[in-house]
């Protein structure tokens, strides 16, 4: 069963449908096609290292204590806790998801968060920045077309093959089933 509140308090942003978020995630994967191995796993951590010539992309926070695991500024700079950065480089599924989630904020929310108001239970889920970034992260790491291609694979196999946590693989598969993709 999918956990209903698997995202943190977010900000109200422009509404996006699942199909629009997944389309943007697919665009992201295609932009970094050379970072996808023959099994479909994207090397999300090395995308941080690409030099775009503008002098900005990411920074490592000083420590993990009492701070966020990751955050993205309104101008697209990603900050990561040292443990998340190391974990993503070492293939930890949860840390890879956190990094993909922060890329989701860059791709979906740049220019919106600085003036946004906090999301409440009164707002629609598809207006929540955290929900949108989670959808993006799941679709980048384990896209629908890979779920279809690996339809008979167990949650364990999906998690290992795509470098995601068991929870992510389970949620992605369950959501795809509810949408009639599987």
Summarize the model shown:
The chain is mainly α and 182 residues long. Helix content is 46%, strand content 5%. The protein has one domain.
Your description of this structure?
A hairpin with a 5-residue loop joins strand 2 and strand 3. The chain is mainly α and 182 residues long. It has one domain. The protein has a three-stranded mixed β-sheet with strand order 1-3-2. The protein is 46% helix and 5% strand. It is built from eight helices and three strands.
Keyphrases for this structure?
182 residues; mainly alpha; three-stranded mixed beta sheet; 3 strands; globular; disordered N terminus; IrrE_HExxH; ImmA/IrrE family metallo-endopeptidase; Rad_response_metalloprotease
Cα-based radius of gyration, to the nearest Å: 16 Å
Distance between the termini: 16 Å
**Number of helix segments?**
8
In total, how many domains does the architecture comprise? 1
The proportion of residues forming helix, as a percent range, comes to 40-55%
User: How are strands sequenced across the largest beta sheet?
Assistant: 1-3-2
N to C succession of SSEs: HHEEEHHHHHH
Report the uncertain regions: 1-7
Shape by Cα distribution: globular
Strand content: under 5%
Mean pLDDT reading: 88
The chain-level structural class is: mainly alpha
Number-wise, the strands total: 3
How does the major sheet shape up? 3 strands, mixed
Domain IrrE N-terminal-like: 91-172
Protein name: ImmA/IrrE family metallo-endopeptidase
InterPro entries: IrrE_HExxH, Rad_response_metalloprotease
Pfam family, one: Peptidase_M78
């Amino acid at each position: 069963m999918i956990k209903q509140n698997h995202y943190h308090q977010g900000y109200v942003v422009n509404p996006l449908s699942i199909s629009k978020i997944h389309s943007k995630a697919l665009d992201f994967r295609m932009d970094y096609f050379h970072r996808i191995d023959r099994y479909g796993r994207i090397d999300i951590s090395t995308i941080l290292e690409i030099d775009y010539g503008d002098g900005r992309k990411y920074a490592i926070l000083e420590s993990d204590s009492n701070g966020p695991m990751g955050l993205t500024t309104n101008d697209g700079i990603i900050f990561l806790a040292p443990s998340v950065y190391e974990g993503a480089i070492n293939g930890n599924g949860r840390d890879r998801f956190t990094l993909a989630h922060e890329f989701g904020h860059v791709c979906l929310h740049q220019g919106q968060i600085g003036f946004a108001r906090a999301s409440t239970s009164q707002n629609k889920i598809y207006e929540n920045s955290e929900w949108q970034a989670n959808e993006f992260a799941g679709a980048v790491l384990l896209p629908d077309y890979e779920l279809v291609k690996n339809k008979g694979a167990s949650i364990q196999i999906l998690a290992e093959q795509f470098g995601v946590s068991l929870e992510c693989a389970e949620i992605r598969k369950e959501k795809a089933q509810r949408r009639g993709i599987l």
